[in-house]
Amino acid sequence: MTMKTLIAFLAISFGLTWSLAAVLIFVGFSTPVFLLAVYAPGIAGIFMVWRHYGLTGLRSFFKRLTLWRMPLAWWLYLLLGYPALIYLGAALNGTIGDPFPFSPWHQVFPALIQTLFLLGTNEEFGWRGVALPLLQRKMAPFWAGLLLGIIWAAWHIPAFFISGLQYEAWSAVPYFGGVIALSIILTPLFNSSRGSLLIAYLYHFQMMNPIFPDAQPWDHLLIAIVAVVVVVLNRHTMFKKGTGVTEVLMPENIAISES
Fold this sequence. Notes:
Elements: H1 3-26, H2 31-62, H3 72-93, H4 108-118, H5 127-136, H6 141-155, H7 172-192, H8 197-208, H9 218-233, H10 235-238, H11 252-258
């Protein structure tokens, strides 16, 4: 894969999402069309892997879902730190005491399953699966994460014009800033897990966790502060080219060590 692959990936992702979003904006909302628009980066990423490496390459690519090892501090942030940020943001926003959206309680499980498998989590097969490793071949992790964050934020622009989505109630500027900050945080997390698609997938799930209260725009301000701290703590690798994961497929040495 080369940078031309990245350009093709972005063309497919933006072309498919934005064209389908236009249908949703001007014709009306349709769940299948919306889901296909959301899946576009994941579809594009998987397609590019198949196009370059075939079915054998796809199997290797998906093996990155089995990578789970990373420093304990990152696991604590993923499982406890990020939710704490959201609840702190909700407290600042005055929404922490809002009624729980799921009643009766047994509705929680289907909502979690839907978020985990049917919504934006699948984007990570493209953003962190393909785009970030290719960007890190050309630049240091910080710049790769920053550039990908800008691209990722821009990809979401049509969502603010689709009637019925939660984006209607959000301020665009804090949201876009938060997405860029999330991408910067995800970059060293992804690299520390040796390019785990599982970790990126779980982080994206936390970003969309349906049981969390609405903390806009305070949550993104807090996430931006965390991004600054993360960059400072990882400054020796974040600004050094060659320290990030650059492989799209599962590296053989990792596959052997995990077996």
